[in-house]
TrEMBL record, chain A:
Pfam families cross-referenced by the UniProt entry: Metallophos (PF00149)
Xref: Gene3D superfamilies: 3.60.21.10
Broad class of enzyme this protein falls into: hydrolase
High-level lineage: Bacteria, Pseudomonadati, Bacteroidota, Sphingobacteriia, Sphingobacteriales
EC number, as in UniProt: 3.1.-.-
Protein name: Ligase-associated DNA damage response endonuclease PdeM
UniProt-recorded Gene Ontology molecular function terms: endonuclease activity; hydrolase activity; ligase activity
Record has Lipid biosynthesis as a keyword: no
Record-linked NCBIfam families: P_estr_lig_assc (TIGR04123)
Keywords from the named record: Endonuclease, Hydrolase, Ligase, Nuclease
Organism (species): Sphingobacterium alkalisoli
Record-annotated Calcineurin-like phosphoesterase domain positions: 28-144
Automatic annotation (TrEMBL), chain B:
Domain Helicase C-terminal: start-end pairs: 243-402
Residue ranges occupied by any Helicase ATP-binding domain in the UniProt entry: 24-210
Family assignment from sequence similarity: Belongs to the Lhr helicase family. Lhr-Core subfamily.
Protein name per UniProt: Ligase-associated DNA damage response DEXH box helicase
Record InterPro entries: ATP-dep_Helicase, DEAD/DEAH_box_helicase_dom, DEXH_lig_assoc, Helicase_ATP-bd, Helicase_C-like, Lhr-like, Lhr-like_DEAD/DEAH_assoc, Lhr_WH_dom
Keywords, comma-separated and alphabetical: ATP-binding, DNA damage, DNA repair, DNA-binding, Helicase, Hydrolase, Isomerase, Ligase, Nucleotide-binding
Entry annotated with the keyword DNA damage: yes
Originating species: Sphingobacterium alkalisoli
Amino acid sequence: MAKKLTFNNLEIFLLPQKAVYIPHYAMLIVSDWHLGKLMHFRKEGLFVPPPQIRHELNILGELMQEVPTKKVVFLGDLFHSDWNADWTELINYLSNFPHIEFVLTKGNHDILTEEIWEKSTVIQQKDQLILAEGLVLSHEPIADLPEHMFNLVGHIHPGCVIETKGRQSFRLPCFYLKNKRLVLPAFGKYTGLHIISKEVDTQIFAIVNDAVIEV
Amino acid sequence: MNQLADVWFFNQGWKPHAFQKEAWKVISKGNSGLLNAPTGFGKTFGIWFGILDHYYNHPQFQKKKTKKKQLHALWITPLRALSKEIYKAATQVSTDLELDYKIELRTGDTSSADRQKQRKNPPQALITTPESVHLLLASKGATDYFKQLEFIVVDEWHELLGSKRGVLIELALSRLKAINPMLKIWGISATIGNLPEAQEILLGHHHRGVMVKANLKKKIQIETILPDSLEKFPWAGHLGVRLLDKVVDIIRKYHSTLIFTNTRSQAEIWYQQIITFYPEFAGLLAIHHGSLSDEIRLWVEDALHEGKLKAVVCTSSLDLGVDFRPVDCVIQIGSPKGVARFLQRAGRSGHRPHETSYIYYLPTNSLEIIEGDSLKYAVKENIIEQRIPYIRSFDVLVQYLMTLAVGDGFDAVQLFSEVKGTHCFSSISREEFDQCMALLLYGGAALTAYDDFHRLELVDGLYKVTSRKLALRHRLSIGAIVSDIMMRVKFMSGKYLGSIEESFISKLNSGDVFWFSGRQLELIQVRANDAIVKPSEKKKGVIPSWMGGRFAISPDLGTAIRHSFSNIHKDKVSSPEIEFLRPLFVEQSKRSILPKEGELLVEYMQTKYGFHLFLYPFDGKLVHEGMAQVIAYRLGKIKPATFSIATNEYGIELLTDTEYEIDVPFLTNLLTPHNLHADISSGINVQEMARRRFRDIAGIAGLVFQGYPGKQMKSKHLQANSGLFFSVFEDYDPNNLLLREAYDEVFDFQLEEGRMQQAFERIADHHIVLAKPLRLTPFSFPIFSESFRERYSNEDWQSRLEKLKGQLLDG
């Protein structure tokens, strides 16, 4: 059960899979995947079990099958720090989809060397991506955008706490919208949440099971 | 015969106690052992002169030619403050007798220059902490350094025993015994319920050590501070400060009083209250707790020694060791939660042999008054808690393996047999040991296809850490105490007052006022890890509440409390507390039933909030919390429902909007001990509890790194990390030893499955009496008004989310 928003007459959908979908462009947007994070920890000598990156990759694969997709935008922090073998897995996996274009708007954790990028032509790198309707896609917010423009960003891994009857509380990932800036939840599984508190001019869209619901 | 002691005691004008003479004798025969004596009778000298005697009567230490001095004795204490005290006493002896026996301190405060010196040119004795011993083991040449060690003394062993720091001691001892089989081990312990076990854990299985007991009984005078009138519907914390005047009267009556509170925030509140209503105490009253700076604490301790202070409000920070001779009275605010803690605190007054210790117990609500009766009973009957040692603490083992690898390296086969010799790991299998090794060698199960992981390496048959970065990082994280991230509280001038949890400071804004270290402070700004403050005159301030302040009542005090309650229906009892509470009990029997010995009271009633089920097993809050979850689970199986649960030390409340047909057979079924383990496992969200436990385990095992000094990671980051690791382990390595340890600790320490089983079995023996009162009763009211409540639902996370979804979509 996705949530529909309209920015400058462009329909965009907030998906419970923690992604944004724009039908007009057949575009999927996911943010803060942090692939390779656990391998990175292992390299630092922290003994996490080696994860099965295949599982993570398949989550994107399923999503690309569910909605018609021509373009996938990674909204930064796609890969966690230095190169490790998970990167090669990712590149090989994406190569199975020659009809889909993959773009990364660079984030603070995307610090792979130029040399690696030269071998990874399946993903194009950009600082930001601008859509004709005045939507700017970037990892971190861009200051001083013109009045009419919307900014889709990631970076902070937003989450919210919902308290209900009987003092129950739920910590859930969410999208949040403030001052024409839409923040996406982290797509990655092992990323943690930064809890956003509700203010007057913010809208919070929580991901509850298979639904995105404004709270 | 101990010549040095004879001379020194003679010069002091003292006569040694029988237990001291006995200790000197058995030490001179080369025995290991455990010394059990109350504080204030010279335990330290009982061991110390034995060590000196050994040194001066063994010619190998007297040869001038010995090229390099070697460490002769290692004295381990749980507290830095105590280390200093021992250091002073021991150094005084060497000075008085003009001995060349040098003593040095080595704690977290020792500068790196001094540490270097201690390595190159060791003194005869080092006074240190468990963590510092492990740091020594983590340095190159550790084996040589300890080669000539003759004595190791573990002071306040009862304090260390029930914690993972005790495991650090066990492991260090196993290594030092292997380096030097002639090592003599001595423990010093206060009385605990399992003294022989404490001795066996320290000295090793099948040990031949001796037990030296001081048969000195301290006289203790216990009095409960009673309010002028009785509140029949008591609620928690209500009574405490109302008794302020009575506390001040007591302070005035004595020379110097220690006022013990259970939490740091309570200490701040009491200090603030006394100073506000009795300003004449300014300068005569001080505050002392674990978050204050060393400077402030030392000042308070010195002033206490010199008899300059009329009273000090303090927490467990003043529980141990250090003698303050002028102190002649102790006040305990609120339930001490354990008999041993109460006795320990009582012993802080009347320190000299044969003086009486005076302790006043101040209850914080009416029902707590009865604990005064229970405490007296427990002391009279010599009921005292056991200290339960940790077993199978794989997190500490993983840390220890790393420690040795950073030091001289280790041989896996030899080390396995050393580790297996300890009490903590006596049941470890070779396979489990190898799993711990595999974590450090391969980062998990062996042989993954391609990997960058490397921590330990095999160099010439020994496992070592070759990366300097890893070695440094490990040295910084040695220890078994995982603390919350703290912020330093400072004045603009840079003067350091102490530290507060980041979570408290982060809730404040600039300009907000709070109470800390007995001062009213205004937050100016937060800079990195510093909270900059200035003194404030504003009227209203908040008091920080520190984490970890809640401990539960001990099983032994629970027994004593049940004993007190078994007397309440009797017409005549010689107990001022029970007599005082009489009107409350009369009211209870008027509205409901007053349970007799062997009876379990259950109350069921309806209010505008729903249907309340109250039970009074008197088993302590911790056990009640677990019991409540099990009962909720069982009720939920009969009729699905969501419960609001509240507990206190005496009873349990389950509140729900679903009505049950309650009668005695129904309750008997509900409270059966059958299938308890299965109901705990499926009924309680053990996973969530284990996730929280895992945070400390991950920290100790070196899975998460708290950061370099001054560059501490934000606590949020750390939190997310251990939670994340927990999820990854659950997903990919569910049989991991550290993960299993988290679950075991939940069952053993948090749910106290053993105590819960006993409680259910006891209830099965009891006669259940059911009352259906129309209104709340004196027993139920304090539980009803507990503000901290837990939810229990027998619906799983998915269906709870679905329910939430429904609510959100409709609303």
